[in-house]
Amino acid sequence: MNTETAPTKGGFSGKQVLLFLLLAILVTAGITYWLIRTYVFASDFRPVELSQKEQGKLDDKLRAMGVDPESLLPDADRGPIEDRIQRDGDGNLIPEAYSEAGASRVIELSERELNSMLANNSDLARRFAVDLSDSLASAKLLVPFDQDFPVLGGKTLRVNAGLELDYRNDQPVVILRGVSVMGVPIPNAWLGNLKNVDLVDQFGGNPGFWQNFADGVEVIEIKDGELHIELKE
């Protein structure tokens, strides 16, 4: 009589294979849903709202740049109305002699302040946001499509872009680090071969915007979530 036992079969059973297939389908569906929600059918951003104290600091910076904050940001929360700009009894501006004595040539704006200025346009604030990290300004933009647009009609597309801002070798540095759509980087050729190119160094030698920009800037840098610019006399 043969007493040897039959060898144990290797591999997975039919039930195990089916279970693995179902698990793979669920994981793939979850990742696909996250990608679509994050990069294709993106939801609106939440506009930045400054506290009254933060708004007061931003107002002071805008006044130092010669901008009337109440005209630029009429809906900002400033608490009790205080007319810090000198006006006469009829509400008209009081004339004054021009002087640069004691004037500051430094512009400093934080990430929150920049985004709060965008929030003055509620539609723009929900679709455009700025991030400031060391030497890098990044932007997120949501692009809505019309209902009759093929495939993406009525949906919103997410676009990201990065711009390096710094000051080296006695001149400002402005470098496009890239643009992506739906998380996919745009080829450099489609960007006019301007990716990773110092626009000031490339075009600043010719008369025009970049030359004028470079000639007027003493220092430009982004650090600790704040844009710092010093202008020349």
Please give a structural write-up:
- This protein has 233 residues and is an alpha+beta fold.
- Among the domains are: 46-80 and 113-123, no CATH class; 127-233, no CATH class.
- 30% of the residues lie in helices and 25% in strands.
- Strand 2 (128-133) and strand 3 (136-144) form a beta hairpin.
- The longest helix is centred in the N-terminal third of the chain and has 27 residues, at 14-40.
- It starts with 13 loop residues before the first helix and ends with a strand.
Calculate Rg over CA atoms: 28 Å
Structural class: alpha+beta
Share in helix: 25-40%
Overall, the morphology is extended
Proportion in β-strands: 25-35%
Largest sheet: 5 strands, antiparallel
| Structure summary, number of beta strands | 8
- Quaternary structure annotation: single chain
Sequence of secondary-structure elements: HHHEHHEEEEEHHEE
Rounded mean pLDDT score: 77
Q: Widest sheet: strand order?
A: 2-3-4-5-6
Query: Total helix count?
Result: 7
Distance between the termini: 108 Å
Uncertain runs with pLDDT below 50, 5 residues or more? 3-8
Question: Tags for this entry?
Answer:
single chain; 233 residues; alpha+beta; five-stranded antiparallel β-sheet; 7 helices
Give the SSE map.
Layout: H1 14-40, H2 52-64, H3 69-72, E1 106-110, H4 111-118, H5 122-125, E2 128-133, E3 136-144, E4 156-168, E5 171-181, E6 184-185, H6 199-203, H7 209-216, E7 217-223, E8 226-231
Antiparallel strand pairs: 1-8, 2-3, 3-4, 4-5, 5-6, 7-8
